[in-house]
User: Fold these one by one.
Assistant:
Number 1:
Amino acid sequence: MDDPQLKNKDLRMALSQATDRVTLNKVPNKGAHVPTTNWIPPDRSGTKLGTYDASIGFDVAKAKASLTASKIASADVKLTLLLVDSPTNKAIGEFLQSEWKKHLGIDVKLEFVDSKTRSARFNATQFQMVTGGWQEDYPDPENWMIGLWESKGSINKTKTNIPALDDLISKAKFNQSDETRRQQYRDTEKLLLDGVNGIAPLWHTGNHRLVKPYISGMKESKRPGDTFVAGDWNPENWKTTKK
C-alpha cells in the first residue's frame, strides 16, 4: 500500500474490476475453487457470497472508468506480480496478465520464484503485487482480521493502514456481545474491500475428496481440520460395512 502507483485507489479498483474470477476458476484452477470478492468466508462472517461483486467484481466498463479516474496512463503503469514457481501459478499469472492487458492495456510483469524466496520477500514486504492466501486457525471472523489488516498488525505485509478499521477491530476484540462484534467484523471487511485496500480476493479454496460408498460417519464440522478430510476430528464415529 506504500507503492507509489498502488497507493492510487482507482488503479487498485481498476485491476480488481478487470479480473474475471469465474473464468480464472474455470480455466487455470480447473473449477476447483469458489470465485469470490469476499475476504472472510460467508459461513464465518454472515456476509453473503457476492456482496462485493458490484463494487470490486468483474466489470470491464467500471474497470476502464476506474483507470481513467486514476489519472495514470496505461502505458505508465509499471507493476510486477510475484508468484511461487509452479505450473498452476504460471497459468494463473499468465491469465491475470492477459486480463489486465486485454481490458486495461496494462503490461504487468510476472516474477516466478521458489517458495522459500517468495516467503522471505513477502515477510520483508519486497513486492508490488503477490498471490497468497490464508488458512484459518479457528472458525471465527476475528481470525481473518486480527493481525492481518490492522496498521500495526504483525502479519500486515501489505502495509494496509485504515484508522477506522483499526478502531473497529480494537472494539470487536473485547466486545462481549457476539452479534455486535460479528457486525463489527463485517464492517471491517467492508472497509478493507471497498477500496481494494491491500487485497483483491479471487477465490476461496475448495477441498475435494472421494469417499468409498461403504464408509459413513464422515460428517463435516466447522473445525479447521475438517478442511482436509470431513470428520477427521472424530474418526471414532466412522463406520464401514465392508468386511
Note: The two ends are 59 Å apart (CA to CA).
Number 2:
Amino acid sequence: MTSEMQEIIEGQAKMTLEKSVFYNPVQEFNRDISIACITQYQKTLNKDIHIFEGLSATGLRSIRYAKEIPNVSKITTNDLDKDAFKTIQENVVKNNVQDIITPSLNDANVAMLQNKNMFDVIDLDPYGSVIPFVDAAIQSIKNGGLLCVTCTDMTVLGGSYLETSYAKYGGTTLKGKFCHEMALRLVLHALESSATRYKRVIVPLMSCSIDFYVRVFVIVKESPKDTKLSCTKTSMVGLCSGCHYYRLQPLGVVNENRTKFSNSRCVLPSKCTFCDFPLHIGGPIYSADIHNQEFVVNLLDALKDESSAQRFKTHKRMLGMVSVISEELNQPLYYDLSQLSSTIKVSTIPVMLFNSALLNEGYKVSSTHCSKTGFKTDAPMDLIWYVLKSWALKQPNYDIKKFEEQKSSPGKNIMNFNFIYDSEVNFEKHELANPSSRIKGLTRYQMNPTKNWGPGAKPTKKLKKDE
C-alpha cells in the first residue's frame, strides 16, 4: 500500500482508500444509526429492498448496508467523481458484495430521475445541504419508501443567515435556543413542500440533531387527499426578543368533517404578553410530530438486544439518544431552563424540582435530545414563569430590588407581572420527574468525540474538462 492510500475498517466493511477521497470517521455514528433505522424499516416489509445511495464518495456506507442489513437485494451506489467511482468498484470487489452493489458514475439527480418509483430506500448524505437533490428523490422513491437525508450546513439552519435559509429551505431561522430542533423542522418543511407538489406527503419516523448536522428518516407516501392537510402541519414561529417566550401560528386549520379548510386566526401579538418586548417572526416550519413513537420504541427495543452492542461501535451513544427521543414530548420546539432562569437573574432551578412543579399541576414535561438544558412541555408559559418566579422568591439571597434601577427589562417586567394563580407552587418530588434514561445513566448527550471535530474539509478536487 502506497503512502497515498489508507486502510479503514468500520463495522463489517474493510476499505482501501486514496487519501484524496473524502472520508469522515466522526460520521460512523451516522452510519450506525442509519443501519439500525433501515433494518427496523425493513422489518415492516414482506420483501427484499433496493437501496440508492446518491453521494457515496467511498462506497463505505453502501458496503456496510450490503453486509449488515438483512434482506437487501440490490444497492445502487452512485458518485459523480471518477476517482470515487473507481474506489467504489475496487472496494465492492474487496468486500465480496458485487452481487448486491452496482456502482454508478452519474449525477445523483439524473440517476434518480432515470429511475422513478424504483427505490425502497434513498440515502442522501451530502456535504452541505440536501435540498438540490430533494425533488428528484421524492419522485424516485417508491410509494411507502424510506428517505434518509443529512444536512451539515448548520450555520444556515442554525440562525445566522436567515436570507440563505429562506432561499434554500423556504423558511427563515430564529436565533433561539431551540435552533437545533428548528433546523430539523425547516428540513422537514422543505421535504414536505417538495412532496406535496407530486401528490405525496412525508411521515417522519425519527429526526435527529447530531453533532454538526441533522439527520432525518421519513416515509414518503402517495396521498393526494393528505396533501391538503399540509397547511395544517405548517406554522410560523414568534419568538420574544426579551424573555424568549415563543408561540406558533399555524397557516391553516381543518374543520371537524375534514372537507373544508380555512385560514387560522392570527394568535401572534406584536409584543410579548409577559415582558412587553417585541416578537420576531421565523419560519414557516413543519409543526407536526417529528418522531413516530411506535417506530422509535421498536428501534429502542432492538438496540437493547445484546447483539446490538456487539454490532455497533457507537452503540452506547445510539442507545442513549434513542432513549431520550423515546421520552420526548411531540411538542414543537423547546425552552432552555438556564436561559429562562438567567432572564430573571436567579440561579438555575434544579431540573427535578422544575419538572415536579409542572407535573404536580397536571402537565407533561420532558427533556430533548437536541439540548442538555432544554425541556419540552405542554404547560402554558404563564405557569412556567410563575414556577420560576416562585422559585426565585424562595431563594434567601434573591433580591428583587436589583431590577429597580432598570427602566425596563424582561426580568423586571416578569417579576412584576400579576400571575393569575392563587395557590403556591408545589415543588414536592413527582415520581415522573426523573426520566428513565437519566436513572439508568445512559449516554444521553455526547461530548465532542475528537479534537478539531466537525464535518471535515470539503473535497477540492476539480473535474477535468472532459469529465
Note: Confidence is low (pLDDT under 50) at residues 460-467.
Number 3:
Amino acid sequence: MKKIWKYYRGFVWEMAAVFVLYQLFRLIFVWFNMSYLTGVQWRYFVEGIWFDAVAVFYLFLPFILLSILPVSVKIKQTVLYKSLKNVFFYLGITVSLLLNLTDVIYFRFTLRRTTREIIELLVQSSDVWGLIPRFFLDYWYILLLFGGFLTAAIYFHTKVNKDTKEDLPVSQRWAAFIFFSLFFIICARGGFGYKPLMPVDAYKYASGNEVNVVLNTSFTFLKSFEQPLEIDSKHYFLSEKEMEQYFNPKQQIRPMNIPLQQPNIVLLILESFGKEYVSYFNKKHHLTPFLDSLFARSAVFRYSFANGRRSIEALPSIFISVPALSNNPLITSEFVSNQFESFPDKLKTRGYYTAFFHGAKNGSMNFDAFTKSIGFDEYFGMNEYTGAEEDFDGNWGIFDEPFLQYTVEKLTNAPKPFFASVFTLSSHHPFKIPEKYNNRFNGKYDNLPIAPTVEYTDYALAQFFKKLKKQPFFDNTLFIITADHTSLSKNEYFKQSPGNFAVPIAFYHPKIPLKNYLDTNILIEHKDIMPTLLSMLQMTDSVYAFGTNIMQTKTVGMHYINYQYEFIFDSLLVRFFNDSVQQIYYYQHDSMLRNNMFGQLSEAEIKEISLRSKAIIQTYQSDLLHNRMNLNRSIKTD
C-alpha cells in the first residue's frame, strides 16, 4: 500500500490542491460580492464540492488520464509524456482561473454565473474586445490574483510532481486505474444521483443569489454546452386548448378613452437606469433633477420591471412583447428570423415612419439587424452620426448629449407621424463622460462608479427636451421613458429579485395629464408596453403578446434568472424550478422575500399557480420552436 501511495501521491496531492483552489474561488466570490448575498452559510462550501468535482473532471480530464493510465514508469518519464501532462495541468488551471476570477466581477452586472453565451457575445460584438483592457485596468486586483494563483500552481506542480523511478506491478497499476476511473466517473456525474448534476440542482441547497455560491463558473460554463443548443421543450399540457385556459398570448386590444390624435411617439431606453439611480424613486441622492421634474408630470408606475438583465434582452420585450425566458438572448439565437408581431409593423399600417437611434458602433448587440427585421424603417448608429470626432467616447460609441441633439435634428426632418426609439449608452461601464464635464458631474451615491454618468445622461436628456420643445411637433408627441435593465448596487432590495429588475416605466405627454387616465399602482413590465400603447392609440388590433394592455387585463410578471422562472400573479411572486412551484412570496409587503408562503396556501391555489406557470413556459418554448409567435398561432407545425 505504501508503494502505491508513493507512486500516485504527487497526482493525489495535485488533485486535492485543485479542489482547495475551487473552494478559494468560492471564498473570493463571496468576499467580493458579499453585498449581493444574504445569509451565506458554510454548508454552501461543502455542498458545492460536487459541483466542483464535475468541473475538475472535465477541465483536467487529459491530465487525469495521463496520470492514471496503467503504463510503465519508463513511458511516463519520457519528455513527451511529461510535457503533455504539464501542458494539460496548466491548461486546466488557467481556464479555471480565467472563468472563476473574471466572474467575481462580471457577476455584479448579471447576477448569475457565466455560461457559453459569453463566447457568443465576444464573437458577435467586436466592441466588447476593446473594453477588456479597461475591465482589467479597473479591476486590476483580479489580474493580481490570477498571477498569484498561477505562480503558486506552477510552484506546487513542480514541487510534488517528482519522477518515480520504482515501477508498480501491472496488476497494481490496473487496480489503481480502475479505482481512480470509478472515482472520477462519480465526479463527472456529480455524485450518486440517478441523473448527472445540473446547474438547477443548486436550488436544492440554496435560493436567490446564494445559489451562485454553491455553483462555480467552470461548472455552469461547461454544462451550458450540454444543454439544448437554443431552448428546451416542455410538454406539461397534451392539449393546446387546455393550455390556453391558463395562458393565451393571442388577444384583442380594446382602445382606451384617451384624447390622443395620432401622436408622434418617442420611446427612450436609458442604459442601466434602474429605479435606484433615479432620485424620483430614491431620495438618498439627487442625481436626476431633470427626470424628477419630468416624472412629476408623467404617469409613473409604482411596480415596473424589465423582463431581462441585459441590454440585448430589452428590445424583444419592448417591441415584440417577448420576455427573456431562457439563457440565450433571442437576438443572437436561430429564432431571430421567426415571424413576430412587432410594434413598428403595427404602426406602419397606420402611416407611421419608424426609426431606431443608438449611438453605439453599428452591429453592437445586433441591434441594427434586429430592428430592421421587426419593421423599423431606419437605423441611426455611430456610422450615421455626422458630428465631431471628439464625440466618440473611446469605448462604446457617441456620448449621450451630442447623440441626443443629433436625434432631434433627424426627427425634425422625419415624416410625421413618427415612432422613434432612442437607446442611450453613456451610463455603461467604463462609465465615461466628456472631459469638459468631469468637474461638473461628480455626484456620489454609495460610491458607485455609475453615479456621474447618471448625472450626465440626465443633463443630456434635459438638453434633448429643451431642443425638442422648440419643434412644432413636440406638443403632439407621446413619450415613454424606461431603462433596459438595472446595474451595480449596494442596496439589499435592488440586489435580488424583484428589485434587480426594477426600472422606471413612465408615460408623458406635454398637453395631456396621462396620470388621470392610467392606474399607476398596478404591475407593468417591458412586455406590456406594446399592447398598452396600441390601446392608448385607439387601435383595435389582434396581437400576439406575452404582455397585456394593463388597463384591460392584469399582466403577469415574467422573469428568468439563475435557471429558475419567476412569475408575478397579482401580489404573489412565484419561483418555479425543477418543474414545480417551490417558493411563493407577497412581494409588495415582503420586498426582501423572507417569508415563503408556500405552506400557507391551499392545495387548490398552488395547483392553479402551477398550471398558469407551466402554461407560460410551454407556450414560450413551443411557439418559439415552431415559429408561432404571431397571429398564425392556430397553425400547428408539429
Note: The longest helix spans residues 79-110.
Number 4:
Amino acid sequence: MLVPVRKEHPVSAVLVRNLNEHTYHNDTTTLSASGAKILLGKRPPAPDSEALAFGRLVHTVILEPQNLDTYAVLNADEIGLTVKGEKSDNPKATKAWREAVFAAKRDGLTVIDPAELAHAQALADAIAAHPEAGRLLAAATEHELSAYAEHPSGARVRARFDLVIPGSLGDIKACRDADPKMFDRTVHALGYHISAANYIDIARANGLTVDRFDLICVEKEPTPGGEYRVAVMEIHKDAIEKGRELMADACARWLALGKCINLPSYGDGRHVVDLPPYVYNADFEDIQINLGEAS
C-alpha cells in the first residue's frame, strides 16, 4: 500500500486540479499505470489511434464539456466543395477541406466531424440515463483529478481520476462489449486491475477515503433497438490485490531501467513452442480455428 509522505519530502503526495492532459501524460519523472503495463509486457496502442481519440472525446463530453472548444467540428460535405462550389464525390480530397483542416490544426484544435460528436454525446446520454452510472456521476466531487504519491519501492507514481466519489473512484470506458459476464477477460487483457490498484493507493496516500474502484462502461455500438448499453462494474478486491503486486513489479523494473519505459525482451536464449493445450483435446475437431493474420 502507498503511504502519505511528509510535506517536506521532495516526492510528496499531492493532488493537482486542472492539470493539462498533455502535461500529465508527458511526465517522464513519474510512473503511471499505463507505463506500468508496458513494462509488464503489454504493447501500447498507437497514440493517434481512432479508439483512443474517440475515448478522449467521450471523456471530454462527459467530464470536461468546457474543453469542447479544443475541437473543431467540421462537416466535410459542407466544406469540401469543388472549385465551382459544387458538392464533391470525395470532399476530404478537396483544397477547401485541406485548408480548413490545416487552419484548425494550426490553431491547436482537434478536427472531428458532426457524426463523431453526436456519437460521443449519445454515449454520454446513455451513461447519464443509467440509474447507477448516473448516480455515480451526480455524486462525484472531482473530475479529471491528477494525483501523485510515492510507491514503497521508491518510485514516484501518478494517476488521473475520472471521477472522485465519496468512498470510491470511477473510471469511464467506451468499449466494444460491456457484458459483465465476460468482462473479467477484458479486465485481465487491458490491465484494469493494475490501474485500479494504482489509483486506489495513490488516492489513499493523498488522504482520500476510497474502498472501491468502479468501471462505468458504455458500448460504442448500439443494439438493434438503437440503445447504447451501460454496465457499472466494481473490480473485486482480489483482482486489485493482484494488480497491486504487478504494479510493484513494474515500479521495480522502471527503477532498474533508470526510469525508462520499455517492453521487456523475450530473452537471449531459445524457446520451445508447442501447440495450445486445447489442440490435444479429443473434442478439438469441433473447435473453430482462427488462423489470424500471420503468414
Note: The chain has ten helices and eight strands.
